[in-house]
Amino acid sequence: MLSNIGVPGLILILVLALIIFGPKKLPEIGRAFGQTLREFKKSTRELTSDVMEELEDDNEKKVIK
C-alpha cells in the first residue's frame, strides 16, 4: 500500500500535516510516531525470539525421545 505513494504523494501528505497540525505540533507528533514504531519493532522481535526458543525446545525434546 505505501509503495504506491511516491515522492509527490509524500510531499502532499507532509504539507497537509503541516497545515493541519502546525509547525509547533509536528515534531511532537513525529517523536510519538517514532516511539510507537520502536516499541512495535521491539515487541515483534521479542515475540519472534520467544517463538523460536519454544520451537528449539520442542525439537530438543523430540530428539531426546
From TrEMBL:
The keyword Membrane applies. It comes from the Bacteria. Its main location: membrane. It is found in: Cell membrane; Membrane. Signal peptide: none annotated. The chain crosses the membrane at residues 6-23. It is a single-pass membrane protein. Keywords: Cell membrane, Membrane, Protein transport, Translocation, Transmembrane, Transmembrane helix, Transport. Pfam families: TatA_B_E. Part of the twin-arginine translocation (Tat) system that transports large folded proteins containing a characteristic twin-arginine motif in their signal peptide across the thylakoid membrane. Involved in delta pH-dependent protein transport required for chloroplast development, especially thylakoid membrane formation. TATC and TATB mediate precursor recognition, whereas TATA facilitates translocation. Belongs to the TatA/E family. Forms a complex with TatC. This is Sec-independent protein translocase protein TatA. It comes from Cytobacillus citreus.
